[in-house]
Write a structure and sequence with these properties.
The protein has about 1400 residues and is an alpha+beta fold. The chain has 23 helices and 79 strands. An eight-stranded antiparallel beta sheet has the order 31-32-33-35-56-54-38-37, with no helix packed on it. Strand 15 and strand 16 form a beta hairpin. Helix 7 runs antiparallel to helix 10 and helix 10 crosses helix 15. The protein is flat and about 140 Å long.
Length: about 1400
């Protein structure tokens, strides 16, 4: 089949069976903007001639192009019809021969075995180099990972080749290759190898999965594989949710961007650059030129506002134009929307966008939808994969020759290969040794050369790795990796390392290697000595199995009596009683009751103490040991406490344990019975102020225990308290007497006259009370308790060591309540407690006191209470030897019951030798004990007989495999030459470890190490992986304009860089000398890398250090720099456009890295919304508010008005808002409230009296009106055209949605004729004209502008279909509530 050829396009041909014809009819739809030639082309009659036969396979991409072509040239209907026919064709043949799939279809390439063998060989070589100490641990790891990555890629090529050559119609291959299902990465895992996996921390495991799913995985591989699988699952789940939320926020921020006008008339645009090859690809297609595009010869290729399509792009490229200024939504000056010419083609039909198109929503969906295809984040590769790129090999055998300009220096590659790095650009030539042409290689600066000048080499030798020639410093970060020791022995540095001591800010000293060199560990049996063990052998002495190497002693600190306890586990406890205290006068009695066990002390004078600390417990100083059981100070009921003069207490911080008596005296007690009740008042059986007898029922089931006057306390008809005060009542008529006791009661001694004829006989407490008969005095009895000056202390027996800690007891009396305190109770209370309290002298905080029961020395049946301070020593059992310890033998030097003095040895532990050998002690360090020693055994050395050969090695020399010992004899092991006896060389075996410069050395020269100890921490630089900031989280970070942690330092003003190194520290200071010779210093924090060189020219906003860029700071830098040279308005526009360009690039980079293509204009629409606002810094003479966020164009209008009137303009700073913030800051409060923080948004809108002009889609949908977009746009458009005034969107308006010029009209509200009165029996009253006038004047609305369509009631003249019949029941209800007038 065949289409008529169209201008500038190639007809694609399709191989279809003769029976199939795709009827393509010309389409009748055409946009008003379509050019006449286009119109003619579209409606050209279809040709009658038979289609040309073309045999060509059509895959997914070709199908896409075919459909796009058909759409462009023949319109919608023809394309739909063609697609239908294509589907039928596909189904027709699929029914005859469908694609089946079986296990046999998974063909594994034969080359796999060879590739794996090659990789294994490379890995073995690398491991060998590492074993010989030629490369560091980091270089080994990097090389292993790169080897497997490269193998995997080569295997993929083999898989493709295998399918293509041997089985091109294989179902798996066919589907993957045509793009129907699956991709190469999946096919690779099915028939190639599964490859490298990351662990849960995100570091690559250097053990790859060599098998594929067809062969099946081993158990280890399966476990490693499941890490990746789990990550994939979680990733997908999170991604869906994240992506959905992102789309919602995007829709919200852009929903009111609708194409509302044809041309905004702007002269601004954005420049679009060609790539290195001068190509624009699709970047220009669908855009309109902002200025004429002129070729070098002066031909105008495109006029201003000319549409650029593919053919024109080709013309521009051919003319060699490198930059084209095009119109863009970013520079569109249409208020709140985008005009057609700035937007360009609608991507759906490749013609100028229609008026009323909701381009904001389209942009939001275009950015949000591919979000699910982005990964959440790729993985950290433990050290970035540095798989070689740009590798050049020699094509022939010959000699390398560097050009005359060549300048090279030594360089070590990340794989530990010694090479050279080019410092200039030059040509490397390979001069053939036989016949042939000279091979020339252009070497750029920074390329790595693997051959030296004049070096002969065979064909297929790697010559160089050519760098891309970018002089930009790569962003690097510091990585670290531990070097772990493989064998026990002694550390020796090579001199080349030159360790230096570095002191950090905390004063810790670390050793750092200054040069690349080896650190050796020489083999031997290392013994870890227990703390306080001392070697008992001298260095370099032979020892045999069972010899004592070291001995540790267990020494008593204070001395005392020894007690040997039964053993627990692998140790035995020795206790030494340092101090003890026995209550020898008191007998300890034990009782068991249902509430638990109690212990009592019974004294000779019948005193009885309750023991508060039970035997077997541990206590500290100040704790109560026992309390005197004494009923002398117990009352019958509650009451009030008064201290008589003479009784005094010690001041205490807290009264938790009572008040300690310092001087004895008399305690007075006034009994009061208080019933605390929480019951209804109806249960009360007496009255307030009534006199009752003992045994009276006051409340149901509660009886008074004493006679007296009742006081009832109640709250909200709930009884709280009933107080009964006992005593004698005396009626007194004299008000003066009553007045004396009105506020509070008073104590009176016997014989005092209270009132005429009323004399007390005993001590009383007098209070005034009201009775039904009148005022009276209540004389309350007072009880007296005598408190002695000192409490009784039982007799004690103490034992202590000289200079050691000791124990004592003191007896204290504590009053429970303070002077004047009221105790609410019915039962009695304890007024005074006598306590025995522990006192310790000369103890440390760690010492505890043990409470014990001991039999009396004379009468064994009687038990006494004893308090002891114990020194507990653990004596270890004998142990058998293990890898790091010798066997031990422990001997006790004391017996049970023996007294020892301070410093006496209690036990000794000996460390015994495991094998015969030569013992050596480590190099002594001042002030540090010996913690390890080493025995060099027979198999730690190796003797090599050199026969008659001349010996080349020297004593002390360190060798690796393959180095020469004597003529014709090379070493077959690594180690140090220990001795040369005649013709026998003794080598002490060892293992070299390569350390790189700046590595932190954990061990000193001569130190002893065990297997598994960390020897050093290698510090290396790796390029910062883009992985942390990839995928969806990165898109979110950009669109939400988040401030990154530890962002890069940016240059504020352009100038020349000057770098100063701070002495004695690693840090540097970067200063920029600006054009006016001002100098700005930028301190660079520790761990940051400067990204600029000394003397380099930098411009504002450029990065001085590595790290993520803070977009807010970037905008600030641009604006500050430009404002110093240009007017504020221009500076703001330019700063914003610079930032916008950066933002669009950043977002595009993330999508491109994942293979997703999005048109720039979608991102531009969103970024425009994020950068449309400015913050008012100083309002000047305008009505704006400082701190207010307002659109830039509004400020521009206000400032222009100020320029006319001569007022001070407003000062402002451009701001960048994240999409959430921008959504909440929109003019429409309805839209903002429907998005987030509904209550806050609506409250603020109400407080500020905002108006919503219903410009966007959401607000209109919520209100229930036709949306001003799509087909709904037409009505508004006609209305706008017929209106006399200017376009409502271009009206001058003040900031905010609420402070408006009085005669403003809202957008798109259709003016209606005034509503006629409806004659209806009962409807809600219309407001009178007076009321309307009042509202208008209050709101500042003109009378002509107040009847909006939205609020007008339809009139009868408008031909209502339904008659308005009020619901009688509803009318009645409204009349009752007074909401309707009767007429």
């Amino acid at each position: 089949m065949r289409w008529p050829p169209s201008e500038g396009s190639v007809s694609p041909e399709l191989f279809l069976p003769s029976s199939t014809r795709l009827p393509l009819r010309p389409t009748m739809t055409s946009s008003p903007s379509t050019s006449t030639s286009d119109q003619g082309r579209r409606n050209a009659p279809l040709t009658k001639e038979a289609p040309r036969f073309l045999n060509k396979e059509i895959n997914k991409k070709a199908l896409r192009n075919l459909v796009a072509w058909a759409y462009k040239h023949h319109g919608t209907a023809a394309t739909a019809s063609m697609a239908d026919e294509l589907k039928d064709l596909g189904f027709h043949y699929a029914t005859q021969a469908a694609v089946s799939i079986s296990v046999e279809d998974l063909r594994i390439p034969v080359q796999k075995v060879r590739l794996l063998e090659e990789a294994e060989q490379q890995i073995t070589d690398t491991e060998e180099r590492y074993r010989l100490g030629e490369i560091t641990e980091v270089e080994r790891h990097t090389k292993v990972i790169d080897t497997w990555t490269e193998t995997n890629e080569r295997l993929v090529e083999e898989v493709k080749k295998n399918f293509n050559d041997n089985d091109p119609l294989n179902s798996v291959w066919m589907m993957a290759n045509s793009g129907a299902r699956g991709n190469m990465s999946q096919v690779r895992q099915l028939v190639g190898m599964r490859g490298l996996m990351a662990n849960p921390q995100g570091e690559i495991i250097d053990l790859p999965i060599r098998t594929n799913f067809r062969e099946g995985l081993t158990v280890t591989e399966y476990v490693i594989s499941s890490y990746g699988a789990r990550k994939g699952l979680v990733d997908t789940a999170l991604r869906t949710a994240d992506s959905g939320y992102l789309t919602r926020r995007l829709v919200d921020v852009a929903q009111d961007v609708i194409v509302r006008e044809d041309d905004c008339g702007t002269t601004r645009g954005i420049p679009i650059q060609a790539d290195e090859k001068g190509r624009f690809q699709a970047k220009l297609v669908g855009r309109l030129a902002a200025e004429p595009v002129v070729a070098a010869n002066g031909d105008v290729l495109v006029e201003r506002d000319g549409e650029i399509d593919k053919p024109i792009t080709a013309l521009i490229e051919a003319a060699g134009v490198r930059t084209v200024l095009v119109r863009s939504p970013l520079t569109c000056e249409a208020a709140r929307s985008v005009c057609r010419k700035c937007y360009g083609w609608a991507l759906a039909h490749n013609q100028l966008v229609d008026l009323g198109e909701a381009v904001g929503i389209i942009a939001a969906q275009s950015i949000g939808e591919p979000g699910t295809q982005l990964t959440m984040r790729t993985f950290h590769t433990g050290g970035v994969s540095t798989a070689e790129t740009g590798v050049v090999r020699s094509l022939l055998e010959g000699v390398a020759e560097f050009g005359p300009k060549a300048r090279v220096r030594q360089h070590r590659t990340p794989h530990g290969v010694e090479a050279q790095i080019a410092e200039t650009d030059f040509t490397l030539a390979v001069i053939p040794s036989g016949k042939g042409k000279v091979q020339k290689v252009e070497v750029s600066t920074g390329s790595i050369l693997f051959v030296a000048n004049g070096q002969p080499m065979p064909a297929d030798t790697v010559l160089a790795q050519i760098s891309a020639g970018t002089s930009v410093k790569k962003s690097v970060e510091k990585g670290t990796k531990d070097v772990i020791c493989d064998l026990a022995g002694q550390v020796r540095y090579e001199d080349v390392i030159q360790p230096r001591q570095v002191t950090d800010r905390q004063g810790n000293i670390t050793l750092k290697a200054q040069r690349l060199g080896r650190m050796w560990v020489l083999a031997g049996d290392v013994y870890n000595l227990p703390p306080n063990a001392q070697p008992v052998v001298a260095g370099n002495k032979p020892v045999t199995t069972g010899d004592v190497l070291a001995e540790s002693r267990l020494v008593s600190e204070h001395g005392g009596v020894v007690r040997l306890r039964e053993s627990a586990g692998d140790s035995r406890e020795v206790q030494i009683v340092t101090a003890s205290l026995t209550l020898k006068d008191c007998k300890l009695v034990h009782e068991s009751t249902h509430s638990g066990e109690t212990w009592h002390l019974e004294g000779k004078d019948n005193s009885r103490y309750v023991v508060r600390t039970h035997p077997g417990s541990k206590i500290g100083t100040g704790e109560v040991i026992a309390e005197l059981a004494d009923d002398r100070f117990r009352t019958q009921t509650g009451g009030m406490v008064k201290y008589a003069p003479g009784l005094s207490i010690k001041k205490a911080r807290s009264a938790k344990n009572g008040y300690e008596v310092s001087k004895g005296g008399t305690l007075l007690w006034i009994p009061t019975e208080t019933h605390e009740i929480n019951k209804d008042i109806s249960l009360l059986m007496i009255e307030d102020g009534q006199w009752i007898e003992a045994g009276t029922e006051v409340v149901k089931d509660i009886f008074s225990q004493i006679a007296g006057i009742v006081t009832v306390t109640q709250k909200n008809d709930i009884l709280r308290e009933i107080i009964v005060r006992s005593g004698t009542l005396h009626l007194v008529a004299d008000s003066k007497v009553l007045g004396r006791y009105a506020d509070e009661g008073k104590l009176h001694n016997p014989g005092d006259e209270l009132a005429p004829g009323l004399v007390t006989e005993a001590m009383v407490y007098v209070e005034a009370v009201d009775t039904p008969e009148g005022g009276a005095l209540l004389l309350r009895p007072v009880e007296e308790y005598t408190i002695p000056d000192h409490a009784h202390l039982p007799e004690l027996a103490t034992i202590k060591q000289n200079g050691g800690p000791s124990l004592g007891l003191k007896a204290t009396q504590r009053l429970t309540y303070k002077d004047g305190e009221m105790i609410k109770s019915v039962e009695g209370v304890e007024l005074l407690r006598t306590q025995l309290i522990l006192e310790t002298i000369d103890t440390t905080p760690q010492m505890t006191v043990d409470v014990e029961v001991v039999p009396d020395k004379r009468a064994k049946t009687i038990e006494r209470l004893q308090l002891v301070i114990l020194e507990t020593l653990l004596v270890r059992r004998d142990t058998l030897s293990d890898a790091s310890h010798g066997s031990t033998h422990t001997k006790l030097q004391v017996e049970d019951g023996v007294a020892v003095k301070s410093g006496d040895v209690v036990a000794t532990t000996q460390i015994l030798c495991k094998e015969n050998g030569l013992v050596q002690l480590p190099d002594p360090i001042d002030g540090e004990p010996v913690r390890r020693l080493i025995v060099e055994r027979a198999h730690d050395t190796k003797d090599v007989d050199c026969g008659s050969a001349a010996i080349a090695a020297t004593v002390g020399q360190r060798l690796v495999d393959g180095e020469l010992l004597a003529e014709g004899i090379s070493a077959d092991c690594c180690g140090q030459v220990e001795a040369i006896n005649g013709n026998t060389i003794t080598i002490r075996l060892g293992r070299p470890y390569m350390v790189s410069p700046d590595s932190v050395l954990h061990v000193r020269d001569g130190e002893l190490v065990q297997r598994g100890d960390a020897l050093a921490l290698l510090v290396f630089e790796r390029q910062k992986t883009g992985d942390i900031v990839q995928g969806l989280p990165r898109i979110e970070e950009l669109l939400e304009a988040r401030r990154p942690r530890e962002s890069a330092v940016l240059c504020r003003r352009s100038g020349t860089v000057q770098i100063k190194q701070v002495e004695d520290e690693d840090s540097v200071t970067v200063s920029v000398i600006e054009s006016d010779d001002a100098q700005t210093e930028y301190p660079i924090s520790h761990g940051r890398n400067a990204m600029v060189n000394d003397g380099q020219q930098v411009s504002a906003g450029e990065m001085l250090t590595d790290g993520p860029i803070n977009p807010h700071e970037l905008l600030e830098c641009y604006f500050e720099d430009l404002r110093s040279r240009k007017p504020s308005m221009e500076a703001a526009q330019e700063a914003i456009s610079k930032l916008q360009f950066r933002m669009v690039q950043e977002v595009q980079n993330v999508y491109k890295s994942q293979g997703v293509t999005i048109d720039d204009k979608h991102i531009e629409v969103i970024v425009r919304q994020m950068t449309s606002k400015v913050r008012i810094e100083d309002a000047g003479d305008t009505t704006l508010l400082p701190g207010e966020l307002i659109e830039l164009r509004q400020v521009e209008q206000v400032n222009q008005a100020m320029a006319i009137t001569g007022g001070a303009p407003a000062e402002f700073t451009p701001v960048l808002l994240g999409i959430t913030k921008a959504s909440l800051n929109t003019d429409s409060f309805i839209s903002a409230a429907s998005f987030q923080e509904t209550t806050r948004v609506l409250t603020e809108a109400a407080i500020e009296g905002k108006s919503d002009w219903l410009r966007g889609l959401k607000e209109n949908v919520i209100i229930g009106r036709l949306i001003p977009a799509g087909t709904g746009f037409g009505g508004f458009e006609e209305e706008l055209r017929s209106e006399a005034g200017p376009h409502p969107d271009i009206l001058d308006e003040e900031s905010g949605g609420y402070r408006r010029v009085a005669n403003l009209r809202p957008d798109y509200t259709v003016e209606m004729p005034a509503a006629a009165a409806v004659a209806s029996p009962a409807v809600l009253d219309d407001p009178s004209e007076d009321e309307l006038d009042a509202v208008r004047s209050k709101r500042g609305i003109e009378a002509t502008a107040s009847s909006f369509a939205a609020f007008a009631r339809p009139s009868v003249d408008e031909g209502l279909e339904e008659e308005l019949i009020p619901d009688p029941a509803a009318v009645e209800g409204l009349l009752e509530e007074g909401l309707l007038s009767d007429d």
